[in-house]
Amino acid sequence: MSSVLKKEKYRKAIDKKCNYKAWFGFLKAMLFPLLKLLLPARALGRENIPEKGGYILAFNHRSLLDAPMAFSAIPGYWHFIAKEELYNSAIMRWLLPRLGVVAVNRTDIDLSTIRKSVNILKNGEVIGIFPEGTRNLADEEDTMLEMKNGAAMFAVRGKVPVLPVYIYRKTKFFRRSYLYIGKPIDVSSLVSGPLTKDKLDLCASAISEGMEEARGYLNTVMREKRYGKEIRAEKKRMKARRKAEKADAKRRKAEEKLLKKREKSTRKKVPPEDREN
Known about the structure:
2 domains, Glycerol-3-phosphate (1)-acyltransferase, alpha/beta, 8 helices, seven-stranded mixed sheet
């Protein structure tokens, strides 16, 4: 079947509008325990996830199971960028639109895909993407493939950070997977003026460096067998941060209340004829 006929075959499914958050919530409630059993996973670096606003999760890619495994490891709802060839399957044509998956032509990203992805990010939602563009079938200790420009383009146009996420070794059923979420990379700050290929290459290079840093860190942690220790330390830091944020919010609220009280007291002392209307 020609590429044109294939595209016509699943274009209707790709463009289908669904209440993806409701479907995701329903499917998660039904299937999440099974997903955790089949693809157990732990994510380190969750403290690097922004509390609000859109952002991109950029993963390395070794297995077809990477996406569902990542959903079980990283909290919250997020869209995923997937190759449009997946829509050749009738099951996927039904499932993917209900999960809010964005289909992309890996050889030629069209304007509608860019616009759709940027709108998602500007709405404060999250997108997951494999910037390598395809699975890396090399040995697990080898370096990653060259990064494509898709993640950089979406991040620059959406003005959101990219979080590099490294998956340690190939994802397999019933084997615990380990991930590390690196610090956000503000690639949009690297670009000024018209967006050219050279500028996109620069942004993609920054994402690649972030991925390599995440890879190096997680490989060291796993080699030294201190993943559990790092997880526990991170949980303590996150708990302390939430406690500090709560105390700060309480302090600001008290200051605002005191300021209003002072303003009210001052206003009472001013004679009625001197008050402004």
